[in-house]
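User: I've been going back and forth on whether these two constructs are worth ordering. Before I decide, could you fold them both?

Assistant: Sure. I'll take them in the order you sent them. The first construct and its structure tokens:
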Amino acid sequence: MTDRSDELWLKGELMPYFFLSHAPDEDAIFVERFYQDLSAEIRKRAIVDPHVDVGYLDIAAREGAHWPADAKAALAGCQTFIALCSAKYFLTSSCGRAWGVFADRLRKLESAGGQQPPALVPVIWSSEGLPEDFLAEEDIRLARQHTPGDEDLRVLLRLRRHRQAYRAFVASLAHRVIQTARVHRLPPASELNVDTLENAFERRSRWLHGAQRPQRLHFIVCAGTRQQMASIRSDLQYYGSRSEDWSPFPEASPQPLAAHAGSIAARYLLRSVVVPVNGLEDQISAARARNEIVVLLVDAWAVRLRAVRDALMSMGRGDEGYVAVLVPHSPDDRETATHWEALHRQVLDALPHTSQHRDGFCWEALGSLTDFEARLGCAIVEAQQQIHRRGRAFRTPGGKPTSRPIIDGP
């Protein structure tokens, strides 16, 4: 690099010093405060213009293919990756993909003959539920940034008596970030497609909770593509090129419903997978064998598609306790509101067995994203209770729901 390039880089005009990764919905106010404090300390130490962004705060709420250009650019060019580690963090696929992108940049540098810098920096945000060996990462030099007394960082931020220790930690981390960036220049990624990358945490041979595999939740999207739905209804704004792209609440959340549901599952420390409706029978069978949960996300309109209707009709009486059915629709969707009575009846007709059994089964027509989030949480807890009665028990870190699921029948 020339002296001019070095000068520009130190001003933050070429590459950010750090990328801050964290789990969604996890003390967002304190995460923002930490990001601002660390940025200010780096600017002061590196003599950087106060208006220049020296880092990037990942919102970590994107489970679908909706990574903005600035996030991709920051991840491709940042010199240090700081991960605010918690049990939820390692169950969030967007965090796993971001971690994997940076880890691959380190591996490529080493394979090209360079020295791998200690630039992937784990910081313990919450130690609850984390085993001692969770930092293991093949071929990557991980060096945890310890807090004074090894307190959780969120504890240092929350309690006034830790203010001095918190300031010392921020100063120490800022020094490490600057020195790592100056001594080891990590080349930017030439090609980066975060949306299609594999979750690095899924590749691990061990599981977060010791030898026991965390319970998995299967989201089956019973919806059509935009092309398929064009012959069914007029308003196609809720659909994409894949059935998994279905987004019934675009005004509240731009990402697909299944992606948003995955972030809800992570709050309960559940890993989740998303599959289209043509995998329904196999997924239910596999879930039953492993005492796992299946949640059907049903677009009432899609029941008019033969493939969706046949798949729902295939569900039998033996699936109670493993399957929850949620049928969300937006109050702003006037076309659905106009035809709701007929759509409602068609969904019930497509579920001849399950809609008659209230024990362990949740059928819910949900009119807002908030309702969906609440009922999904209830469905998870209800299904776990049913599985506990039929199989082995699982802990529910997310706590008890505020109310029990309600079956909305004829």
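The second construct, handled the same way:
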Amino acid sequence: MAMPWVPYRIPVPGDRAFLRATRVIEGIRGPVVDRARPEEARGTDVVSAL
């Protein structure tokens, strides 16, 4: 976003930190969603709302 003229395949400062943060978030979000999926009941929690 800060440098829109740079193609995505060229690494820019912050890429590693962004990818690391994305992996952390996926590591937290993934199991939560996986646990909520088998439950067919419509709950009132955030995961069910999403």
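Notes on the second construct follow. Residues 22 and 28 are 10 Å apart (CA to CA). The chain has two helices and no strands.
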